[in-house]
Amino acid sequence: VADVCEVHHELRQFVVKEAPPTVFYIPDFISEEEEAYLLQQVYQSPRTKWTQLSGRRLQNWGGLPHPKGMLAEKIPDWLEKYCERISSLGAFSGKTANHVLVNEYKQGEGIMPHEDGPLYHPTVTTISLGSHTLLDFYRPISSQGAAGPQTEESRYLLSLLLKPRSLLILQDEMYQHLLHGIQPCSQDTLTDRVVNLSSAGALPGETLPRGTRVSLTIRHVPKVMKAKLILGRK
Ligand SMILES: O=C(O)CCC(=O)C(=O)O
Ligand SMILES: [Fe+2]
Predict the structure, then answer these.
(1) Closest-lying ligand to the alpha carbon of 103?
(2) Which residues, if any, are the signal sequence (predicted)?
């Protein structure tokens, strides 16, 4: 298919065939030791790195994406290692990730359905730490009003189970055309709408209590400001 991004051969075995193109789900992408180390680094970051939002808090690393170009900041080594590792899988069409959002969700917290938008290369990669979650996908609100009222429920399409230590890669239609969100609930009962159950090692009917989850969303911001422009040189 022409509009499907190229990834390296070793990723192909992890494609989630039950979802629209393209999802890769890689269980145990990192070890328990790496998970503990990453959590330690996240919680050792200066307090001023945290931004409190309603229902979650976040750390932004690499700079603030902006339509005129991101003023790039150095990503600390503990995150840079994973930017490079994931980029080497071909996730960003040969580019290297230069932006990381750390989100922390306490039990019962979530994120409203949204699109990640045009400031990023249209791939998002996510390492989950500490707890599983369900990432839910929705069709956009369609412009043809004839179909009657569109509730969030009627636009809901499928979910992915993200276990701790897994890597998720979303691109193509899953990134460009669908919205994603996390329901603010404290446990999840798995149904057959969770399309990656077998690769995530779970069964329909299982109920999983959520704990505190920290996610690292690792991306490539193509438009970066050049330092010489900031310094005003020719
Ligand atoms: O925590 C997650 O896995 C999703 C985060 C997300 O959607 C975002 O930061 O844009
Ligand atoms: Fe998002």
Answers:
(1) 1
(2) none
